[in-house]
Amino acid sequence: MTGQTAPDAATIEALARDALARIPEPFAGHLADVVLIVEEFADDETLDAMGIEDPFDLTGLYHGRPIGEKSAFESGALPDRIHLYRRPLLEEWCQTGVSLDALITHVVVHEVGHHFGLSDADMHALEGQAG
């Protein structure tokens, strides 16, 4: 990357929104209210809660209640959020050599999978459809 600057948060967000837009129905219809947040790293509280010591080990996180656990009677709850962590994503991008778009898609689909309570196999299939 000599002479180039690292992709900024806006670039990461644009790639993530593009990945979300490629997720097929019936999932897509349930994603309109999910908030996408790009931060440099997860905060210490999040890392501690997950038992993660190295902030570079967390590239994304779904925060909210899976679709199957929601109730129509809930009100006032915060919207579900997908957090993407820019610096760990860039580190993984440089180390793996995969395209940044493919990496962001992988992380977004994985976090969306948590939103729907999907298994790893289901997430892999969804990634193939969104890829």
Give the overall average pLDDT. Answer: 86
Query: What share of the residues lie within helices?
Result: 40-55%
Distance between the termini: 25 Å
Q: What is the chain-wise order of helices and strands?
A: HEHEEHHH
Neighbour order of strands in the largest sheet: 1-3-2
Radius of gyration: 15 Å
Proportion of strand residues: 5-15%
Given the helix and strand composition, which structural class is it? mainly alpha
Shape: globular
Short structural summary:
The protein has 131 residues and is mostly helical. Helix content is 45%, strand content 11%.
Fold and architecture overview:
- This protein is mainly α.
- The chain is 45% helix and 11% strand.
- The protein has five helices and three strands; from the N terminus they run H-E-H-E-E-H-H-H.
- It has helices at 9-21, 44-50, 86-96, 100-116, 120-130; strands at 35-39, 60-63, 81-85.
- A three-stranded mixed β-sheet has the order 1-3-2.
- The longest helix is centred in the last third of the chain and has 17 residues, at 100-116.
- The two termini are 25 Å apart.
- The model has no long low-confidence stretch (mean pLDDT 86).
